[in-house]
């Protein structure tokens, strides 16, 4: 078998890109404290898959070629779905912003002066709601962990 060092380097480079996606997914999940698949996961999958496909073609390995080729379709589809979802969310946010009434003097009076919400910025309202939901989720998680800790302490006593 012909072992060209450039092709070996390409193969290892593709494998490194492909493997890096799992590290990215793991770190993103740890940061979020829940399992998530970030967009970078799919980009690394695509880059690693394309590089490994080139290596497989060079090796003339039909099993390897079929496996990497099929994977590329899945990675591209996921990136397409993410792009469509983002466009849909942006459109929805734009529709929401255009349908919101401009704040009146009486509605402004309900907000503290200098508050970002007093400006009637729809994005800030949505972000405020999202953060309130996240706060509620984290409060629930803290309570769950405290109860678990108390049960553990009681079982050790």
UniProtKB/TrEMBL annotation:
UniProt domain Lipid A biosynthesis N-terminal: residue ranges: 10-81
Domain of life: Bacteria
Pfam families: LAB_N
Region feature Disordered, mapped onto this chain: 90-119
Transmembrane segments: 6-28, 40-57, 63-82
Taxonomic lineage from the root: Bacteria, Pseudomonadati, Pseudomonadota, Gammaproteobacteria, Oceanospirillales
Coiled coil regions in record: 128-155
Keywords: Coiled coil, Membrane, Transmembrane, Transmembrane helix
InterPro entries in the cross-refs: Lipid_A_biosynth_N
Protein name, per record: Lipid-A-disaccharide synthase N-terminal domain-containing protein
Species of the source: Cobetia marina
């Amino acid at each position: 078998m012909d072992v060209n060092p450039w092709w070996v380097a390409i193969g290892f480079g593709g494998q490194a890109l492909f493997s890096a996606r799992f590290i990215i997914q793991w770190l993103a999940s740890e940061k979020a404290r829940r399992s998530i698949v970030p967009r970078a996961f799919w980009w690394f999958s695509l880059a690693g898959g394309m590089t490994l496909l080139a290596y497989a073609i060079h090796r003339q390995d039909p099993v390897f070629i079929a496996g990497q080729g099929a994977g590329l379709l899945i990675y591209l589809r996921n990136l397409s779905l993410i792009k469509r979802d983002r466009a849909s969310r942006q459109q929805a946010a734009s529709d929401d912003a255009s349908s919101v009434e401009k704040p009146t003097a009486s509605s402004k009076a309900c907000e503290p002066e200098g508050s970002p919400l007093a400006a009637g910025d729809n994005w800030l309202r949505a972000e405020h709601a999202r953060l309130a939901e996240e706060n509620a989720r984290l409060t629930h998680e803290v309570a769950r962990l405290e109860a678990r800790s108390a049960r553990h302490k009681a079982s050790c006593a």
